[in-house]
Amino acid sequence: MDMKNRVIDNPFTLNEGQTIALKLTINDEQYELQVNPTIKLINLLRDHLNLIGPKVSCGIGRCGACSVFVDGVLVNACLLMAYQVNGKHITTIEGLVGVTIDEVQQAFLKEGGFQCGYCTSGMIMTVKSLLSTNPDPTEADIKEALAGNLCRCTGYGGIIRAIQSLAKSKVAVQE
Amino acid sequence: MKSNIVEKEGRVRPDGYSKVTGNLKYLTDLTFPNMLYGKVLRSPYPHAKIISINTDKAIKLPGVEAVLTYNDVPGMNRFGIIVADQPVLCEDKVRYIGDAVACVAAHSIQAAENALKLIEVIYEELPIIDSPEQALKPQAFKLHVGGNICHQAMFSEGNIQQAFEQCEAIVEETYEVPRQLHAYMETEGGVVVPENDGAITVYAGTQHGYRDRFQLSRILGLPEKMIRIVSSPMGGSFGGKDELNIQPYAALLALATKRPVKIHNSRTESFKTSIKRHPMKITVKTGTNRTGKILAHQVKIIADKGAYTTLGPAVLDFSIEHAAGPYIIPNIETEGVSVFTNNGVSGEFRGFGGNQITFALESQLDRLAELLQIDPIEIRKINLRKATDKGPLGQRIAPTDGAAQVLNGIQKLYEKTNKQYSNSQWKRYGTGIAIAMHGGGLGFGRLDSAGGRLSLNKEGQIEISFGFEECGQGLLSVIENLVVEEIGCSKEDVKIVIGDTAVVPSSGSITASRGTSVVWQSLQKLKDPFKQKILHHAGKMLHLPEQSLYLGPGGVWCFEKQAGPCLTYKECVEQLIDNTVETSFHFPVTPDAISGGHFLYSFGGVKVDVEVDLLTGKVKVLSIDHVVSAGPVISPHGYRGQIEGGGIMSLGYTLLEEAKMKDAQYVAQNFDSYLIPNIAEVPFETNVYAIEELYEGDSYGPRGVGEIGTIAITPAIVKAVHDAIGCWVSKLPISSEEILEHIESRGMLEWI
Ligand code: FES
Ligand code: FES
C-alpha cells in the first residue's frame, strides 16, 4: 500500500495557517494529511485528491450525487467535514473497480441506467449499498433506498431496471 | 402493447464505461496549474439604479487577483441569443436579482466570496414589476427602452366570431403554468484558460459552441479565431445551458489575470441566475358542433419573459404555432405577448413553449368531450389531421401519419387497461390520455445550418465530426450506431469528435430535437463520396477494381475473400492524401414563407393512471405509457431514456415544481424547497412504444426525441385526475389544497 503524505491547503478558506492531522484510508490507499479544519470531505476528495467521481449538485444533502462509503456506510460527502472521517475507510466510486468493473456498474451499462452520468456515481454507490444488505429488494425497498438520490435525466426507469436485473439474477443463482 | 425497443445484446454507450466508473471528466471537474477561482456579484435587488461601485477594498484582500466591473468589458457589454439586451456587467441599472455587477478572481473560493462582500455598491431601489399584467398597464414604467413588450405574435385563419355563433358547445378557460427549473444535476461552470498568443480556450458546457464563440467575441473584443470553445460533455442541459452563463465572467477574469479561471455555480447561484421555463397564462375559448368537430378556437397567451430576451420570442412563436396541435381547426385566432418583468429570466426549455400550449389545448378537448358526452379518443379522432394535411400555420410539411399512429396506439392501450384499479374508501383512481405534435428544427426564416464531416484519419480511424455537444441525451450512441450502420465498419473503427470549435465543423445547435436528424441526414450525404474515395484508393493499392471492394469491419474487404479485410484502414490511409468529405446544408424547412413554421414533426401520445388520496389531496401517478412516432429508433437505450426521462420531468412540472417568485425574489433556491421527482414519486414501470414507420417516401430519416416525451404528460395527468374525482385543474402544479377543496365540496369523504 502506498503511504501518502501531504499538506493540504484549502481553496475554500482563508485561514491558511491552521491545519490538523488526518490519517485515513481511501480506496485501499493510506493517506496522512494535514488539512484545514473547515474543509468538507467532498472537497478534500474532489479538489485535493483528484477523486472527481463523487459530484456536488446541491451541497445540502438532498441529491446524493456526492455519495461515498465511510467504513462501508453510505453517506453524503457534502455533509461531512474531513476531520470527522479521521481514522476511517472511505470508498468512492473509483474504489469500486477491481480487476473488472463491479456488477452494479455492469448492470447500469447494460440496462442504460444513466444518461448524462452526473448522478451515476452516487446512484451506483447507493445501489451497491442497498444490494449488499438486501440482495433481492422489493419495489418499496428500492424506493426507500434511492429516495435520496436525484436523477433529472432518466426518470429512474433504467436505474430501476438495472437493480431488478441484479436482484433477479441473484434469485436465479440461489435457486 | 409493451415497450418494443430493446438494446441489441451488449451494446453500450461510447461514454458509458467512463460514466459508470466515475472517470469521466466533466468540464467543471477540470483543473489547471496556477488556476484561480472566480465568483460573480449579483444584484440583491430585482430593480435598482446603480449609484456607484467601489472595488478598492476588495482588490486589496490577500489572495484576490482581479475585481472587474462594466468598465473592464473591452467589447460589447451585452449578450443574448436573439437580442443582445442582457448586460454582462451592469452599468447603471439592475433589472433582476441575477443581474451581474462585478466579478472576482482569487486563489480560493472563500477569498473570492469574501472579496464579493467587500465590493461596495450603492443602489437606489426602484419599484418593481413582478407580473406581466402589471407590466402591460398603460401607466407602467418601462423596463427597457423599447417598452415592456418583448415580443408579440399572432396567427389567424377563418372567422372565429361567425364560427362561435354556430357552435353547440363552447368551453372557455384560463390555464396557468409555472416557472420551471431545468435542474440539470451539473450546475453551470467550467474553466477559461488563456493561451500564449492572447487567445483563450473556454471549457464550459453549452448547446452551441460556435454561437458561444460568436457571443464571446463581441463581449471580449477578441476575434473569433482566438476563441476556442470546448463544450462537451455536460451533466444535463435541457435547454438551460443554451444561453451564455458563466463564460463571459471566467473569460474576462482569465484575460485580466492571464491565469486559468474556474467558475462553478453553486446550486443557489444557479437557481438565481439560470433561465427557466416561461410561466404563461393561456386563455382559450373553443367551440364545437354537436358531434365534437371544432369550429372555432381562440387563444390568448401572456408569457412572463422576466428581465431579458434570450430566446423568448422563438418560444412564444412556437406556442402560437402549436396552438392547434395535431387538429384541423377551420377558424382559429391565436395571439401571444411575451412581457418583460423584474422576475427571473425565462428562456429555452425542453419542449420550447409546446408543453404550455398543449396542456391548454388537450384540456379543452377533454372538457368539450365531457360536455358533449363523447369519448376523449373520439373527439380527438374527429378533429385529427390527416397525413397530407398542411401544418398548423397553413404551411406545407413533410407528410406524416404520426398523429393517427399515436392516437391509435393510445386507444389500444386505453381500451385494454382502462379502469384497472378499483376505488377504495380513501382512494380514487383515474385514467387520462393526451397526444401532442412537436416541430423539429428552428423553423422557417431562421438560420438553421447543419453539417458534418467524415474522414479516415491518420490513425486509420473513421473519424466523424459534428459541432454538437453530448449533454447526456445519448448523441454519441446515435452517431456511433449510424456510422456503423451506414458505412459498414465496426464500432471500434469509429472515432467521434464533437464539442470543440478547434476541430469540429459547424452543425448548428444541439437543440430543437434536431441532433439525430442532422446526424442521419449528414451521413446520407457523406457516405457515398466517402466510400468512393476510400475504395478508389484501396483499389489502386490492391490493384483490384473498386467494384470488388467494400468497407467493412477493420478495413476494406473483397467480395471474393471473406476471411478478413484485404486492407486495414490503417494500411489504407498511409498513402491517402484526400481523406475527408464534408457537408453543410440547411435543416429541412417548409417551402412556404411562414415565419417559424416547421417542416418535420414528431408525435407523442401518453396514457397515465393516477391515484388521488382523498385525505391528503395528493396525486400519485401509477403508470405511464408512451407511444411515440418519430421515425426509426437509432439507439434504443437513448430513445427510451429520453422519453421516460422527459415524461418524468413533466410529471414534476404537473405535480411538484414551481420556481415561485415573491416580490421578484426566488422563494426556493435549492432542492430542499424546490422538489423534483425522486424515485419514490415515479411509476415503477413505464412503457415506451416506438412507431418507427415513416410516411411512404419520407426521406428525412429518424427525428430527434429529446422533447416529444415531455409534452402530452401534463394534460394526460390532469385528465386522469378529473377521471378520478371530477375536478378540472387549470393551474399547475396541481395543488393538494385545490384537490381537497374539491373533495370536500363534493362530499366525497364518507365521514364528512
Ligand atoms: S451534493 Fe451532497 S447530497 Fe447533493
Ligand atoms: S443521468 Fe443525468 S442526472 Fe441522472
Question: What are the SSEs and their pairings?
Answer:
The complex is a heterodimer of chains A (175) and B (752).
Chain A: E1 3-7, E2 20-26, E3 29-35, H1 41-48, E4 67-70, E5 73-76, E6 89-91, H2 103-111, H3 120-133, H4 139-146, H5 157-174
Parallel strand pairs in A: 1-3, 2-6
Antiparallel strand pairs in A: 2-3, 4-5, 4-6
Helix pairs in contact in A: 2-5, 3-4
Chain B: H1 16-20, E1 36-42, E2 48-54, H2 56-60, E3 64-68, E4 78-79, E5 86-87, E6 93-94, E7 100-106, H3 109-118, E8 120-125, H4 132-136, E9 149-157, H5 160-165, E10 169-177, E11 189-194, E12 200-204, H6 209-220, E13 227-230, H7 247-257, E14 261-264, H8 267-273, E15 276-277, E16 280-288, E17 294-306, H9 312-321, E18 331-340, E19 346-347, H10 354-372, H11 376-383, H12 402-417, E20 427-440, E21 449-456, E22 462-466, H13 475-487, E23 494-498, H14 515-542, E24 549-552, E25 555-558, E26 567-568, H15 569-573, E27 580-586, E28 600-613, E29 619-629, H16 636-655, E30 661-662, E31 665-666, E32 686-691, H17 708-711, H18 713-725, H19 736-745
Parallel strand pairs in B: 1-14, 12-13, 15-19, 17-18, 22-23, 29-32
Antiparallel strand pairs in B: 1-7, 2-6, 2-8, 3-7, 4-5, 9-18, 10-16, 11-12, 11-14, 16-17, 20-28, 21-22, 21-27, 24-25, 25-26, 28-29, 30-31
One FE2/S2 (inorganic) cluster sits between chains A (114-120, 151-154) and B (185, 236, 472).
GO molecular function (chain B): iron ion binding; xanthine dehydrogenase activity
Domain Aldehyde oxidase/xanthine dehydrogenase a/b hammerhead (chain B): 21-127
Enzyme class (chain B): oxidoreductase
